[in-house]
Amino acid sequence: MAALKQLQLLTTRTPESVVGLEAHEDGWRITVEVVESARIPNTADIMAEYEVDVDGSGDLTGYSRKSRYFRGRTQAD
Length: 77
Fold this sequence. Notes:
Layout: H1 2-11, E1 15-24, E2 27-37, E3 46-55, E4 60-70
Antiparallel strand pairs: 1-2, 2-3, 3-4
InterPro entries: Gas-vesicle_GvpO
Protein name: Gas vesicle protein
Pfam families: GvpO
């Protein structure tokens, strides 16, 4: 998807997984999980969720970081 590649270029972080998707105005709002800071062991990685707004063509129209947390959390803070 073009929007995830665009997010990677803007944030310099690689999207790891899509964890949410909803219809939004003229396109979609996608919640994407990324590694903010890789650590050893990887259970200590700092993760983040970004909300990414995508138009009907799949291009990114906006994004924002919503939360940061350690990998492996079992519930939202």
